[in-house]
């Protein structure tokens, strides 16, 4: 199909949703996006990287803004093609897989690339693949390794759903597996054993009593959280268990490094006879809202911004020294749901804000 980049971003969102693009099956949507950019925009250098499409201008405007969005979705749940409901209880709503996460954001970026006549900044567009699956497959990571010069910018805007509200930076995340060992025995003669599960009593008490730190960074308030998220153990209904494990997730503010986050969790469990293994980690992203390009975006949005709770690919940009925000239509709580849907007024609002920010005069 031919995507019409001049069309209302609401209609363009519907057209993107109608192209199935579950992770690792993005070739068709990437073909259509590439064709549309090549035939309906001017002044862009355009390349293809796997199922990612990249485009940039080089007008020498003194600052560069990156607009980045993933093309893939989670598996379809009887919610393609799209469906618009003009008079729902929630107002004018567009339903369909990816309406929130994040084809509405992609539609806004594509539309603006084709319709801004007086840009204030040079633009880089990055539409990438495989964001919804393992990080090792993420197309943005591949681009960082193979085409790092394409990820240079003064500010990056990731079109992740944020309800039309600028969400700056993101939390880091850390998962730790605690293990306990004991001695197996018949539960009728439990004094002959050593119950591994019981050894988690002290750490669970500490986690229940944990008081999360709150910190203000660039006017964004981040609240940390340390939670037990999984526990496993047991052999049979009449056996004292000799092994058990507990997974703990630490969501930490972006002023901590991963190493500092690990040290903090170690402090929380200090003195307990438990094994400690880091099973997963990703750094957070500082908001960087004091940078001129980021400050101008906040101004265009009427000064409305907040901290991002959760982890997104803005972390990758932060690691490169690029201030980054999440800004896109849609309620993130509806992402991946069977009834995924977006109020169309949010698509219009985000388009208007970004047009004002990206345009000169």
Descriptive overview:
This protein is 26% helix and 28% strand. It has 9 helices and 19 strands. The strands form 5 sheets. It has an 8-stranded mixed beta sheet with strand order 1-2-6-3-7-18-8-17, with helices on both faces. It has a 4-stranded antiparallel beta sheet with strand order 13-15-9-16, with helices on one face. Helix 1 (9-17) crosses helix 3 (103-115), helix 3 packs across helix 9 and helix 7 (292-300) packs across helix 9 (344-358). The longest helix has 15 residues, at 344-358. It is elongated and about 80 Å long. The mean pLDDT is 94.
Short description:
It is elongated and about 80 Å long. The chain is built from nine helices and 19 strands. The protein has helices at residues 9-17, 27-40, 103-115, 139-146, 201-209, 258-268, 292-300, 314-319, 344-358; strands at 45-49, 52-56, 64-70, 83-88, 91-95, 122-128, 155-158, 166-168, 172-181, 185-186, 214-217, 220-223, 225-233, 239-240, 243-252, 275-282, 305-307, 324-326, 341-343.
N-to-C SSE string, H for helix and E for strand: HHEEEEEHEHEEEEHEEEEEHEHEHEEH
Mean pLDDT: 94
Kindly provide the radius of gyration, computed on alpha-carbon positions and rounded to a whole number of angstroms. Answer: 23 Å
**Percent strand:** 25-35%
Largest sheet: 8 strands, mixed
Q: What structural class do helix, strand and pairing data support?
A: alpha+beta
Number of helices: 9
Q: How far from one another are the termini?
A: 36 Å
Shape assignment: elongated
Strand order of the largest sheet: 1-2-6-3-7-18-8-17
Helix residue percentage: 25-40%
Task: Report the count of strand segments.
Answer: 19
Query: Which spans of ≥5 residues are poorly predicted at pLDDT below 50?
Result: none
């Amino acid at each position: 199909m031919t995507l019409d980049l001049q069309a209302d971003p609401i209609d363009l969102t519907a057209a993107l949703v109608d192209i199935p693009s579950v992770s690792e099956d993005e070739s068709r949507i990437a073909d259509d996006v590439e064709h549309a950019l090549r035939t309906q925009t001017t002044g862009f250098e355009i390349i293809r990287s796997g199922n990612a499409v990249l485009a940039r201008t080089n007008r020498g405007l003194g600052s560069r803004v990156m607009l980045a969005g993933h093309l893939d979705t989670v598996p379809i749940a009887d919610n393609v093609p799209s469906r618009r409901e003009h008079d729902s209880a929630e107002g004018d709503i567009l339903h369909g897989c990816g309406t929130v996460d994040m084809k509405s954001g992609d539609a806004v970026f594509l539309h603006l690339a084709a319709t801004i006549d007086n840009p204030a900044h040079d633009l880089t567009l990055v539409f990438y693949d495989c964001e919804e699956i393992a990080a090792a497959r993420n197309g943005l990571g591949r681009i960082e390794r193979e085409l790092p010069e394409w990820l240079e910018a003064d500010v990056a805007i990731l079109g992740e759903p944020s309800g039309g509200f600028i969400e700056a930076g993101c939390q880091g995340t850390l998962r730790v597996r605690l293990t306990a060992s004991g001695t197996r025995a018949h539960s009728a003669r439990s004094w002959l054993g050593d119950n591994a599960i019981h050894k988690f009593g002290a750490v669970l008490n500490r986690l229940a009593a944990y008081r999360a730190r709150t910190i203000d960074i660039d006017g964004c308030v981040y609240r940390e959280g340390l939670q037990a998220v999984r526990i496993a153990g047991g052999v049979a209904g009449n056996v004292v268990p000799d092994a058990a494990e507990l997974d703990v997730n630490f969501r930490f503010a972006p002023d901590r490094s991963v190493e500092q986050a690990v040290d903090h969790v170690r402090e929380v469990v200090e003195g307990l006879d438990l094994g400690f293994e880091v099973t997963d980690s990703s750094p957070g992203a500082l908001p960087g809202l004091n940078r001129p390009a980021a400050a101008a975006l906040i101004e265009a949005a009427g000064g409305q911004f907040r901290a991002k709770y959760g982890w997104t690919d803005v972390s990758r940009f932060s690691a490169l020294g690029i201030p980054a925000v999440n800004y896109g239509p849609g309620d993130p709580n509806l992402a991946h749901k069977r009834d995924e849907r977006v109020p169309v007024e949010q698509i219009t609002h985000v388009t208007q804000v970004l047009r004002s920010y990206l345009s000169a005069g």
